UniProtKB/TrEMBL annotation, chains A, B:
Keyword Signal: no
GO molecular function per UniProt: monoatomic ion channel activity
Domain of life: Eukaryota
Species of origin: Amphiprion ocellaris
Main localization, broad class: membrane
Assigned keywords, A-Z: Membrane, Transmembrane, Transmembrane helix
Protein name, UniProt field: Ion transport domain-containing protein
């Protein structure tokens, strides 16, 4: 473990302290938790390890490795197995090299203590073993199963960059015990209802539509009622009993109330509660680790300004570090950040101010060079004339936006209408003209450079009259009203996190797809050729006359990885699997039940929990303290961009109306440089998470003492199962 | 408005102050908010108004009024229309009398200001008008519609006792603006996806299974995609496109991700957030009103003990009031409550202590007279002998419970198995014997009276070997482990609130059933007679060959109120309505879409929000302060019941093992009376709600100043729409 004093001792070993400090700051900014060796060559290797090219390469090879499923049996595009195996070997080589690189960066003992490294090594070895066995079997013309393909998505979880994904898995694992208790109760309820159903309906000699006996086998009933919870077989499962007497409907209504509505809500409640609890703890550890890193960076840079005074960091060192961390930062932006940190203008900052840096760098600030409208400089008399000013006011007015919203809406309706009609076809040109007019008007009113830089998306979309851009433009404009803002902001904010959930889903889907392909491949076939008689029963005589074949679900099969994925999506929405139980064995249902439990009960609920939490944060918190202080500073320095396309517009205009003289002079005094916080976006998911639980974190907690739990093995220790 | 000084002045007008105080306390206990006249005869009328017989009568007649739908055309049991109309007239009469009674109780101006009274009057008048019109039309042999039947369930909302229901409706109304914005965005997204679907798929000449053109009409697409959100037509709606190319599946997957998962979560988030916000405000007002009433009761009873001292209530007056409020309270229980209030044993209590009374009365306390085991008195030498003590310890041991759990589980499995087998049939007797043994053993170990009173349900169920009692017993035992306790407690606690949601659902279902019956009655027919050829197409040629008829959904119709209700439940689970659009007109779909929006998007989400909130309260709060203080007092007085069927058992037993002598003497000293808080149940839904938001309420806030909003018109003012 690297201790503070050790760093201080090592201060003099490096040619450049700033490199080390910059690494600490950068690690803090992106929440990297790699406890690299501090020897000079290890630091150089670490810088290389974090280089984006290597990361992209790694993810590219993971992608290649995962997409090998497209070319392996059962394949979408069949390739000889030696080709896929050669490519896989290459991928394995890349992963091994990356791992060796990582081993060189961090201390030896840390490397072997980290479970994710062990995981990768095991995955690599197992894959190699599997490839050898498979190759041998192939050579001997035996049937072989590439079982190690199930392990491939686990690489996505265990690479150093899979932090978000690991966190998501941890939060699932932590919620599992509680989910398990509810699941027991739920299954108990299902079993009891099944028993009741058997007693109530089993001996009445009812039949299903297919003429099979209805509710006579206990296990069949259990399965049918389980599927009823997913609402997939509602109301079919109830119809025979309901046709016999409406009294039986009460049984099913009661069942749906208890198991579909109450238990599913309880699952959500339990998942949500656990998710929140553990995530809070993880984020707390994350923030502690971040502060710890910033304190280390501070220790490297600190100077003693006065005898006996607090150690500080001078502006010069600060500038150099910021430049190293973010080479593309503009000088103006850096000056702004410094003035936020050095609030009292002392030329040096203490520890508290320095620690903010990582978060400050995460706030996106847009720098705009503002200048007067070129027409105003060229021909002020004309541009300042009454009709010109009226035009400006009209274009700046909210009604202008609304009118164009309506135009786009009408355009959308026209696109939806019959295109054969020549009038409608010609209307496209009218709309094009209207959009061009809008852009010209806006160019007249707003300074062109500012117009292009800030509202690029906003203003440029309408000029492309293609369908999609219209939609996008309309979408953005519809989203505009203030009332929608909270909802939209949250939706935008949820965006990056959905990527994590996307990876999570891919990991789970991939595993289920691999297993499903082994179990069900070519059991159900899809025929492109409509004349083939086998099409009517999906190429499997067992399906003759079943609803599966009648509804033409033949393409819902496990015959290749693409259709497997699409089928799994369908199963997530509505768990329909009767066909596969028919063509194989009743026990195939177990596969589908496990999938439902994993994906719908656990993952979808965690996703819903995340969306709920994100919304409540948006509703309750408005801005982080740091963001506010940055904004305040920008306003203090009178560098704020006037937000003319916002609600303030009307107010601003009223001010202009009331007091034209002053506003004119104010306009003349406008500084040449302006800032605007792109407040509603977060660079990293971590920043969003941190904000979620910000209220509970003590800003003065510097984590000076290494938190043994948080920093035990280069990764966060997983919270233990404490709910048992 | 009745002011504090007014009450003090009036002190001397009544023959009995205690009656008035008791009414205030009782109103506070049950959260009644009726601002009755304080004149003596009005108070007597008010007591009568609150009498349970009148309330039961009122609900009985509401039930009769609602169930008239069973006998009116289209009827389950047809009755001549003069009979149903006569009964309805009787119901109207009862409601009118009840309303007149209410008008006599409260001041005239309050009566006319209260919207719920106006509502009832309007409903009664409209019903009368409708009956006259319908009677006239019938007499003239014309077709008449009993449109006023839609208004019937509104009575349930507007009677004085419908407080919970009104609150639920208010919370829905308050959430509506926010829901509306999300709904706009959601519909916009659906419309845009539909447009894309039209452009992508409309011109490819694809056909559905029925051979109809696929995705060619914009409105059809919008409807299909809306239904896809409910997952009802997944994957059918996607299959034609997916069969054409798997690329189109991506479109549908994207659609489901955005509209089913994200937007539905957003609906839940918005509903939940609004629900929480407004409920908090309502409960705050409720608590203020309750305290206000208690302060009034205090003002009536107060005495000046010392010159210049704080006014107090003596124990004698307190006893008399408690006796009036709850005549069946035991003296011991009353003494206990007094000792909680009069913490310092001063013989009189101040305002703060008095105000607690309403909440204290709501905590259910079980009084148990404890005595030594009769065998111990009869034959101590035998009962105290080593084998007897060993037996007692065995029966008290946790393993004993587990063993009997296993026995019941085995019994349940046996019941589920084939009954023809004689061995299994005979096994019933073995189980019966085992259950009898259990009861005998418990009777030997525990004092019989305590055994019967406390564990009645627990211990008695197994002795009845019928199926249902087995299930109940097993259910209770399975719920027993500590781990499940939180979940079970919450589920039990949710119980009474579900009744409110049940009423809410009934109101909405009834209205939709009445409208649906007018629109769709006899369009789809169910034939009991299997030989009838019309059965194959539900008696409507339009349904020939449709999936609706093929799946034998004929009994899902609007032909009477019972099948309408069952159909509406099915629509709540999965919105399947293709059949009804086929037999009437495409616009019939509007009915189903509105139903889906009302029930699934709004009401089900509010229900889920309630369950979530109840869970989080259970997870975060453990016990209310008052309950804890009552428990503390019980323990202080050493009157607590030893909980031998809990976890403490093992610890308690270890103590006995270590120190037998003391525990024996302690057992001898056991008081003859014991208390136990039935902590996990709440008498009223209000108490649960209050507990939910207890943390935010200031216990010292007595609402001395009338809150104009809270007490404006005898009912709570509805929070205004402030989110716009």
């Amino acid at each position: 473990q690297i201790e503070g004093p050790h760093i201080t001792m090592c201060r003099f070993c490096y040619s450049n302290d700033f490199d080390l400090a910059a690494i600490y700051v950068s690690d803090a900014q992106y929440n990297r938790n790699i406890y690299f060796d501090t020897s000079p060559q290890a630091v150089r290797l670490y810088l290389l390890y974090n280089h984006w090219v290597l990361k992209v390469l790694l993810y590219f090879f993971i992608l290649v490795d995962l997409s090998l499923a497209l070319f392996e049996e059962p394949a979408v595009v069949p390739l000889p197995s030696w080709v896929t195996m050669l490519v896989e070997l290459l991928c394995l080589l890349v992963f091994t090299l990356r791992l060796i690189h990582y081993a060189k960066v961090i201390p030896r003992d840390k490397f072997w203590k980290d479970p994710k490294n062990i995981c990768i090594i095991v995955i690599l070895l197992l894959t190699l073993v599997d490839m050898i066995i498979y190759g041998a079997l192939k050579a001997a013309n035996c049937y072989g199963v590439r079982w190690s393909r199930v392990l491939r998505p686990l690489l996505l979880v265990n690479v150093t960059e899979g932090r978000q994904l690991r966190r998501a898995f941890r939060s699932i694992r932590n919620a599992l015990p509680q989910i398990f208790y509810v699941f027991l109760l739920f299954m108990f309820s299902v079993l009891m209802f099944s028993l009741m159903a058997l007693k109530l309906l089993g001996k009445r000699g009812l039949t299903t539509i297919e003429g099979a006996p209805y509710f006579t086998s206990y296990l069949e009933i259990v399965f049918d009622l389980y599927v009823l919870v997913t609402t997939a077989n509602s109301p079919d499962v109830m119809m025979p009993a309901y046709n016999a007497s409406f009294v039986f409907a009460i049984f099913f209504i009661l069942y749906i109330l208890i198991n579909t509505y109450i238990f599913m809500s309880v699952f959500l409640a339990v998942v949500y509660n656990n998710y929140k609890k553990y995530l809070k703890e993880e984020v707390r550890q994350l923030v502690r680790a971040k502060r710890h890193k910033m304190v280390r960076a501070f220790a490297v840079l600190q100077e003693q300004k006065e005898e006996g005074g607090e150690p500080v960091v001078s502006q010069a060192s600060w500038n150099q570090v910021v430049h190293l961390v973010q080479p593309d930062i503009s000088n103006a932006h850096r000056e702004l950040l410094w003035s936020v940190c050095d609030d009292k203008n002392q030329g040096a900052i203490g520890k508290v101010a320095f620690v903010q840096l990582a978060d400050l760098l995460n706030i996106e600030v847009i720098t705009i060079k503002s200048r007067p409208h070129p027409l105003n400089s060229l021909c002020p008399a004309f541009y300042q004339s009454a009709p010109s000013r009226l035009l400006c006011r009209m274009v700046q007015h909210r009604a202008f936006v609304i009118v164009y919203d309506l135009i786009i809406l009408v355009n959308a309706v026209f696109i939806g209408l019959d295109e054969e009609n020549p009038m409608i076809a010609n209307s496209e040109w009218v709309f094009l003209a209207l959009y061009m007019l809008e852009i010209l008007l806006k160019l007249y009113v707003f300074e062109p450079r500012a117009f292009f830089s800030r509202h690029s998306f906003w203003n440029w979309t309408p000029c492309d009259v293609s369908l999609l851009s219209d939609l996008a433009s309309l979408t953005i404009r519809t989203m505009f009203p203030v009332r929608f803002r909270t909802i939209i902001n949250t939706l935008i904010r949820i965006g990056p996190a959905i990527l994590t959930f996307g990876q999570l889903i891919i990991v789970v889907y991939y595993i289920f797809a691999m297993v499903g392909m082994e179990l069900f491949k070519n059991k159900v076939k899809f025929y492109e050729d409509t004349s083939d008689p086998a099409k009517a029963y999906c190429g499997n005589p067992l399906l003759k006359g079943t609803a599966f074949a009648q509804l033409n679900y033949c393409k819902n099969n496990f015959n290749n990885v693409v259709s497997s994925f699409i089928l799994l999506v369908e199963l997530t929405v509505v768990n329909q699997c009767s066909g596969f139980a028919t063509v194989t064995h009743m026990s195939a249902r177990i596969f589908f039940v496990i999938f439902h439990i994993m994906v719908v009960i656990v993952i979808i609920n965690i996703f819903v929990a995340f969306v709920l939490e994100a919304f409540f944060v948006e509703y309750s918190v408005d801005k982080s303290d740091l963001q506010t202080s940055l904004e305040k500073k920008i306003e203090e320095l009178e560098l704020a961009v006037a937000q003319y396309v916002t609600d303030n517009l009307v107010n601003a205009m009223e001010t202009i109306d009331n007091d034209l003289g002053t506003s004119q002079s104010a306009a003349a005094n406008v500084p040449s440089l302006m800032f605007k916080i792109a407040s509603k976006r977060y660079r990293t998911v971590d920043a969003l998470l941190q904000r979620m639980f910000e209220a509970d974190l003590d800003p003065e907690d510097f984590a000076e003492h290494d938190d043994p739990e948080a920093q035990g093995n280069g990764n966060f220790a997983n919270p233990t199962f404490s709910s048992a």
